[in-house]
Amino acid sequence: MTLPRLRPPRAGAAPLRAILAQYGVLPRLAGRSFLPLAFLARLPISMTQIGTVVLVSTTYGSIAAGGIAAGFLAAGTAVGGPAIGRLADRFGQRSIMLTASLLNAVATLGLVGLVLSRSPTAVVYAVAMISGASTPQIGSMVRARWVRMTDGGPRLGYAMSYEGAADETAFVLGPAAVSLMTALASPALAMITAALLVGVFGSLVALHPTATAASDHPARPADPIWRNPRVIALVLGSMAIGCFFGGMQTGVTGMATAAGMAGAAGGLYAIMGIGSAIAGLACAALPARFALHDRLVLFAAAIAMLSLPLLLISGVPAMIVVMAPLGCAVGPYIITLFSMAEREVSAQKAAGVMTLLSSGLVVGYAVGSAVGGSLADSSSPSAAFTVSAGAMLIGTVIALSLRPARLGVSPV
Description:
Growth Hormone, Chain: A; 0% strand; 2 domains; mainly alpha; disordered N terminus; 77% helix
């Protein structure tokens, strides 16, 4: 693939114009249809988790059953995600992503049918795990394609920043779409829509010409990536931010419900997501001398510190004031995490390490939701925020452990 040459901005050009010019080259690299296709393909991932909770809870009349079903879905994703990534690295993305997308669509539709027919919950849980395990890992696979399309050059930073912003936007719009469809029709409609989206757009992304960019030189099975201690540390950092998200969503939902604004929980949570997406896009403009490992420490510490005021608030207005700046550190942290992971392995193993990080985030989210929910029930909704703050304090320690002076490696 021939890379288009990007003319550097004139001296004195507005920083915003320079940044937009860098992002403008991405559609030229991948093709104009790729970005919207990849965005629509990743949207179902943010819909099925909350959609499963709502569908199972309302059908069986048990919030616990909904939570357990979502837990099995997350467990399936945690197990299946790395396996799909390794298979994609080994055999190429096209066939693996296509198979996963179609299987996931069928499994999700099957899950809806089983729930609506009030099948035994054990069967529902098993199919939920299959649905999670077959999730095609769109975000991770697309990031791996950017690694090859940019040859790891300066444009990769902008591609990773865009991907982080796209993920954040999807995780804002997905739950909102589920809430809207549930209010207008039923949670089953939301799940069916998610299945159709992943079946259609996941397949289109799988068949897109960029798939060859990630599979020109399939990886050899030797030297598993999880033997790299830095990769393990990055996965732990991903689990930390996942745990942060789990505690945050539980705390926000609990506080909104206590204030009689349960329906506004998704909108309140979106405030953090919007700030995260905007800051993520701006992250690519950070100077190269601001090393990735230093960024990770700064952003992790910022999230931890900005989370602490949430422990003291007692109302929704104060929560909004805290969450707006908090989101500005979240997006850059995730982008930095994935950027560091990309540098730890060869381009041929990029999909594997990206899916490991994504799975770590899912596992952390499940843990954070469970612990946060328990604290909220036994104490107060704001108690769930201790999970978020505590997780990112641990995340800060992990980030510090990745500094070159500690591990005796060259800086990244």
